[in-house]
Amino acid sequence: MLKAFAMDFTATDTAELTGLSIRRVNDIYLPIRRRIAQDCERSSPLQGEVEVDESYFGPIRIRGKRGRGAGGKTIVFGIFKRNGHVYTEIVPDAKKPRF
Asked: Where does 1-99 have alpha helices with state H?
């Protein structure tokens, strides 16, 4: 199966497409992945120690239901950078994706 213009090629996909061994593809991919990780770390505002948490906001709990099961709750995900800023985002759907 050809994944044209996809950035999510696995080593196996690339090996099949190019005819190279998976070991050779991994030898090529590893330095590229390291470089990408270094660039992401440099450009990220979240370096060092951070705290991650989620909270549920909304009406008081319905008897017997808590957390995600309680109706009408809004889930908020937050990242706190020590001595820095707080980044928050409302989570529209916290269900696990089904494949």
From this structure: 11-18, 22-43
CB distance 62 to 71 below 8 Å: yes
29-33, 71-75, 76-80: range with lowest mean pLDDT:
71-75
Positive or negative, the CA dihedral 76, 94, 91, 66 is negative
Mean pLDDT of 7-25: 87
As a whole number of angstroms, the distance between CA 75 and CA 90 comes to 6
Phi, psi of 11 (to 5 degrees): -60, -35
For residue 80, the surrounding DSSP H or E stretch is strand 74-81
| Alpha helical stretches, state H, 50-93 | none
d(CA 68, CA 55): 10
Cβ proximity of 47 and 41 under 8 Å = yes
- Mean pLDDT in the chain? 76
